[in-house]
Amino acid sequence: MKVNLNITKTHIKNGVKTDPSDCPIASSIKDKIKNLKRVSVFVDYATIIVSRNNRNQYLRASLNDMASSFVRRFDGGMAIKPFKVTLNFAKEAANDYLVKTKG
Prior knowledge:
This protein is of the alpha+beta class. It has one domain. The protein has helices at about 10-15, 25-30, 65-75, and strands spanning about 1-5, 35-40, 45-50, 55-60, 85-90, 90, 100. The protein is globular and about 40 Å long. It starts with a strand and ends with a strand.
C-alpha cells in the first residue's frame, strides 16, 4: 500500500520528540490512513496496524534517507522543515498475520 504523506508545519509543531506514535510522520500517517489502529515510526522504518474486514493487518515500510534524517533531526531538537514522502507499506514476511479482532 503506497501512502503519499505531506508532513506539515502543524505536524511538526504538535509532534512529540522520541515518541514513535506521535511524531510528525506518525501524525501525517494518522491523517491519511483509514481504519488505522496503531502507528510507530522509527529512524529506519514505520509500522502500522490497520483493521480490515474485522481483522488486524500488520504492515511495515522502510524510510528513505530524507525521512530518516528528518526523524533524527526532529528527535534531536534540530531545525526541520515540512516535506513530502511516499511510504510503501507491505506485509512483513516474518510477521505476516491476520488476527481476528474482538467485537
